[in-house]
Design a protein that fits this description.
The structure holds two protein chains of two kinds. Chain A is built from four helices and five strands. Chain A is of the alpha/beta class. Chain A has a single domain (3-102), classed as 3-Layer(aba) Sandwich (Rossmann fold). In chain A, α2 (34-43) runs parallel beside α3 (60-70). By secondary structure, chain B is of the alpha+beta class. Chain B folds into five domains: 2-167, Beta-Lactamase (2-Layer Sandwich), CATH 3.30.450.40; 187-326, Beta-Lactamase (2-Layer Sandwich); 338-526, Beta-Lactamase; 552-612; 613-779, Heat Shock Protein 90 (2-Layer Sandwich), CATH 3.30.565. The chains are: A alpha/beta, B alpha+beta. The A-B interface holds A 10, 12-13, 15-16, 19-20, 68-69, 72-73, 75, 81-84, 86-97, 100-104 and B 552, 556, 559-571, 590, 593-594, 597, 604, 609-610, 613, 654, 656-657, 660, 723, 725, 727, 731, 735, 777, 782-787.
């Protein structure tokens, strides 16, 4: 079973994403900020990470940078309420930049694309 | 006897010293002598002027009636012999040949027996002969002879007095003529008037039928003035001809002669030169002496002498008149000059009333074309177009009668009445383009008098513009010719006068400065307008930024909960049976959330998500901030940082993007200097063609970039490193170009590499719309796949 980490400071979002992804047949880990996310990345052999950007303690961009430093091959999707972070070239290191929407079809198809096999 | 003799001599002396007329005195003397000697007749024969004939002048019998007139040639008869020898001679009728030689005397005294002749002479001059006639043969006693001798001396004295008096009278008469002439000549200094007086007075004084005068230029020998009066049968000889004529040494140079005209009439002429201070000035010539009976007579030496004397007076008078004329024309020129200068002064005053280039040019053109100004028929102002290297027509004007009555100052400030279309004139600034181009190239005025023949007009000018003469002066400002002013008098055909041209020469420098200042002023004004516009835009963008940051802040806060609400609603919908009424409620929630999300997107689109990132930043501080981010890496590699920061103006940029640029460059430097080195960061302002830039030079000591990869370093996804996206330099370059800046690379193999980032200060970022930046940003795609 493929392992996905969802990092978002909003509990409701974490819950929503986990439910939906579990339904799709993935094992889902959760983190409330970048620091927690890195801890899990270090411990668990993950297949994909979904990062929010605005988080307390460590934001998604820094988490992205560190994840890519440690595991360049691990796909990282950014899921954020802010479209303008596209301008920040630090986000270019992510594999996908998604603006949050109540319709999770975009997110799910992206996940599927990276975890095809 | 002695008493009688003394009485005679006393009487003689009384007569000699009396004040009665010379004729009376001579008559009385002859009469007294005849009575004293008791001779029948005493006669006095005067020697004529030609000194050839002795004419009977006086007789002791009273006046000689015309039919009794008689004369003896020199050497003829007793009278002629005495005059010839100047010796006393006495003859008797009975002597042989006496009667025959003196037959003429029988008319007066048919029975004369004795004839005694006595010369009447003084020390050096023979006046005539005294002849005593008597019917008896007699010899004069020595006492009688002595008395006669004394009488002849007294006669000679009287005659000399008479001659002297006559001479004096003549001189006085001559002087009075000259006085009259002088008076006439000095009555005027008007040259024309004077010349007329000279010829008429000369003709009248000499009693000639005609007179002519010529004055020549001492240098060119051209005739300066001439004047004529009366009948001139032929032109007077030229002044040089008269000098060429060989005159006797003792005589002044002159020409005298006669000729016959077409009708066979013989004419006489006399010409003398007019000289002043040894210089030949001209000639005066008189024609045909006028006789009372209407005859044409030749001129005598006295006429010549008089003409000479007059010539002296004439030449002085004419010289005075010529000098006066020169002084007068100088004064006139001065007056015109003063007028031109006054015009310039008023013009300068008028030019101070405005700084608008358009208006200044109009004032200048008015000054040149107004009648009360410099009075040219037409004037054109041309200015140099530096970029195209051509002289362009800017404004032209023609003189107009409309503003004639106005005071100059007022007229200068009035709008141009007659414009000349010159806006299409374009004259390339090359030496072969005629005087207009040359004026600018050589920075000097040109006065072209035959432009068509000599090609003074540039070929670029329209054919209808073809003045026969024009003047063009450069507009000079600080040693540069910024244009030219052209004037002509094409419309009226008058020649261009020296004074207004001189004034224009002086004026062109001032005009150049004035036009240049106006030019600077308009540039300042344009800059000012631009600054105002920029300020307005900045205020507008500040307002918009504040509004958009408020709106986007709210929108973002709302988006997260909406995602949860919408997302869970969808999950509920899946769980609820299709026929359940709950299904409809959930769908309402779903639809409403979708509607709100759409609204949010629109709000965020409107506020322009990226606009708020642009601001004014200190480049040095951005560098310091970025250095903090890479500090750990630098320390890990033992890299020393050397900062050479200049003080710089604030830079309008997206600070996060610019920091990204430096971050990427620092990262590269770290990679290059894994074994340690020096990272030098230098900031400095750069003046480029299109404005001021701020530059950052980042130099490492990592040995440089290998030549084979140098051309690839800005390609996306190109990397020589083991990890990373390979986008570092590509991103840096894109960010810099979005800020309208440049990235340059100075690669020194074996030493290191320097990246120079230059970013324009303020103006360009703002002037080029923020929307344009947004459009560019949207074309950039997020990277796919890892590096």
């Amino acid at each position: 079973m493929k392992k996905i980490l969802v990092a978002d400071d909003e509990m409701s979002i974490r819950l929503l994403y986990s439910e939906e992804l579990k339904e799709e047949g993935y094992e889902v880990y959760q983190a409330a900020n970048g620091r927690e996310a890195l801890e899990i990345v270090d411990k668990v052999p993950l297949d994909l990470v979904i990062l929010d950007i605005k988080m307390p303690e460590m934001d998604g961009i820094e988490a992205l940078r560190q994840i890519k430093e440690r595991q360049p091959e691990l796909p990282v999707l950014l899921s954020t309420a802010y479209g303008e972070y596209r301008q920040d070239f630090a986000t270019w290191a992510s594999d996908e930049y998604l603006v949050k929407s109540s319709d999770l079809e975009d997110l799910k198809s992206a996940v599927k694309r990276y975890l095809k096999d | 006897m002695a008493t009688e003799r003394i009485a005679f001599l006393t009487q003689m002396v009384e007569v000699f010293t009396s004040t009665i007329s010379f004729g009376e005195r001579l008559n009385n003397m002859v009469h007294l002598l005849a009575r004293h000697l008791k001779v029948d007749l005493a006669l006095y024969f005067g020697l004529d002027k030609a000194k050839e004939t002795l004419v009977l002048n006086l007789s002791s019998h009273g006046p000689v009636p015309p039919h009794m007139r008689l004369e003896f040639a020199l050497g003829q008869g007793v009278v002629g012999e005495v005059a010839g020898t100047r010796k006393v001679k006495s003859v008797q009728r009975s002597q042989p040949g006496v009667l025959a030689a003196n037959q003429a005397l029988s008319k007066l005294h048919p029975a004369f027996a004795t004839l005694a002749g006595f010369p009447v002479a003084d020390d050096n001059f023979l006046y005539g002969v005294l002849l005593l006639v008597d019917r008896q043969e007699r010899q004069l006693t020595p006492a009688e002879r002595q008395n006669v001798h004394l009488a002849t001396l007294m006669l000679a004295g009287t005659l000399r007095q008479a001659l002297l008096q006559e001479e004096a009278k003549k001189r006085i008469a001559e002087l009075s003529v000259l006085f009259e002439v002088g008076k006439a000549l000095s009555a005027t200094v008007e040259l024309d008037d004077l010349l007329e007086r000279v010829v008429t007075t000369t003709a009248k004084v000499i009693t000639a039928r005609g007179a002519a005068l010529q004055i020549v230029d001492a240098v060119t020998k051209e005739v300066r003035v001439s004047s004529k009066y009366g009948k001139i049968p032929w032109a007077c000889p030229s002044p040089t001809e008269i000098l060429a004529t060989a005159a006797p040494a003792e005589e002044m140079p002159h020409m005298q002669g006669q000729g016959t005209d077409a009708e066979g009439q013989t004419h006489h002429f006399l010409a003398v030169p007019l000289t002043f201070k040894g210089q030949l000035q001209g000639i005066i010539c008189v024609y045909d002496k006028y006789a009372a009976d209407g005859d044409y007579l030749p001129f005598d030496p006295e006429n010549r002498q008089l003409l000479y004397t007059m010539a002296g007076l004439i030449v002085n008078a004419i010289e005075n008149a010529l000098t006066f004329k020169q002084v007068e024309s100088l004064a006139e020129r001065n007056e015109r000059m003063v007028r031109s200068l006054t015009v310039l002064q008023v013009l300068s005053r008028a030019l101070l009333t405005t700084v608008q280039e358009e208006h200044l040019l109009e004032i200048i053109l008015q000054g040149l074309t107004l009648d009360q100004g410099l009075g040219f028929d037409r004037a054109v102002v041309l200015l140099v177009d530096e970029a195209d290297q051509v002289l362009k027509g800017v404004k032209g004007a023609q003189s107009s009668v409309e503003l004639k009555g106005l005071p100059l100052f007022e007229a200068l400030l009035s709008p141009l009445a007659e414009k000349e279309k010159v806006e299409e004139w374009r004259i390339p600034l090359r030496a072969d383009q005629g005087a207009l181009a040359q004026t600018v190239l050589q920075k000097r005025p040109y006065h072209v008098k035959e432009p068509v023949r000599k090609g003074g007009l540039p070929p670029a000018l329209p054919p209808e513009f073809a003045p026969s003469e024009f003047f063009v002066a450069p507009l000079l400002a600080k040693d540069r010719a910024i244009g030219a002013i052209m004037v002509d008098n094409q419309a009226s055909g008058r020649p261009l006068e020296e004074e207004p041209l001189h004034a224009l020469r002086m004026f062109s420098t001032q005009a150049g400065l004035v036009v240049e200042n106006a030019h600077l002023y308009s540039t300042i004004e344009a800059n000012n307008r631009e600054l105002l516009l920029i300020r307005e835009r900045m205020l507008e963008s500040d307002r918009l930024a504040a509004l958009s940051s408020l709106a986007s802040g709210m929108a973002h806060e709302i988006r997260n909960p909406l995602v949860s609400i919408g997302g869970f609603a969808r999950r509920i919908a899946k769980l609820v049976d299709e026929k359940s009424p709950l299904r409809g409620y959930v769908e309402v929630i779903q639809e409403e959330v979708t509607r709100l999300e759409k609204l949010l997107r629109e709000i965020l689109d409107f506020t322009g998500e990226n606009l708020s990132f642009y601001g004014d930043h200190d480049l040095n501080k951005l560098l310091d901030d970025t250095l903090l981010l890479v500090q750990r890496d630098l320390e890990a590699c033992h890299i020393t940082v050397v900062k050479e920061f200049s003080s710089l103006p604030r830079l309008h940029c997206d600070d996060r993007q610019v920091k990204q640029v430096f971050y990427n460059l620092f990262q590269n430097a770290c990679q290059a200097m894994q074994q340690g080195g020096i990272l030098t960061i230098r900031t400095y302002p750069v003046e480029k063609e299109d404005g001021l830039y701020e530059a950052v030079a980042i130099t490492d000591t990592g040995g440089g970039i290998p030549m084979e990869v140098l051309h690839n370093i800005f390609n996306p996804f190109f990397s020589t490193k083991d990890y990373g996206t390979g986008l570092g330099l590509a991103i840096a370059q894109r960010i810099v170009s979005r800020h309208y800046g440049q990235v340059e690379v100075n690669n020194e193999l074996g030493k290191g590499v320097t990246f120079i980032v230059s970013l324009p200060v303020a103006k360009y970022c703002l002037v080029k719309e923020a929307g344009q930046v947004a459009a560019l940003a949207s074309t950039l795609k997020a990277p796919k796949g890892g590096g």
